[in-house]
Amino acid sequence: MPYLHAAITETLRLYPAVAVDSKICFSDDTLPDGFSVRKGDMVSYLPYAMRRMKLIWGDDTEEYKPERWLDENGEFRRESPFKFTAFQAGSQICPGKEFSYRQMKIFSVVLLRCFEFKLSDEKKPVNYRPMLNLEIDGSLHVRTFHRHGN
Ligand code: HEM
């Protein structure tokens, strides 16, 4: 189960469902890096872009690597939600986070146990449209195969 949790987290790190998130400043303020904002300013953070930052995730940031979330005993290693921002952080953190993990695990187990999925065209690049919610540009055609014995 820790590996499935890590695989889902790694998927959300690379492909965050909320790709861009914006906030409006209630008052004049100074951000931790010294940048000044004024009341009414809009501040956005981009989980979709942050996943490409080596400064945050290291040189292998572009790699799909569930192992980065596991410690030496194979247990899930938590990260600060201010680093792994797929569910946002602080008082505005997604209240459905744990529920959505449960749903994603149940669906993964049921679907992957019974079926194998393959891209219809392995050579066609998959592109994304990073809007508020991350969308696949165009469509993603996959073929489904029954796993033997299930
Ligand atoms: C992979 C699944 C999900 C992701 C990545 C996700 C991500 C997020 C993010 C980033 C926010 C913050 C938006 C903002 O305030 O700017 C948010 C808010 C919220 N999410 Fe989720 N969410 C997920 C699933 C769910 C589910 C399953 C539920 C309900 C069962 C849920 C309920 C909410 C609610 C009610 C808020 C608003 C919280 C507030 O305004 O204080 N989410 N979610």
UniProtKB/TrEMBL annotation:
GO MF annotations, alphabetized: heme binding; iron ion binding; monooxygenase activity; oxidoreductase activity, acting on paired donors, with incorporation or reduction of molecular oxygen
Family: Belongs to the cytochrome P450 family.
Name of protein: Cytochrome P450
Taxonomic source organism: Acer yangbiense
Record keywords: Heme, Iron, Metal-binding, Monooxygenase, Oxidoreductase
Classification via SUPFAM superfamilies: Cytochrome P450
Record InterPro entries: Cyt_P450, Cyt_P450_E_grp-IV, Cyt_P450_sf
Residues the record lists as binding heme: C94
Superkingdom, taxonomy of origin: Eukaryota
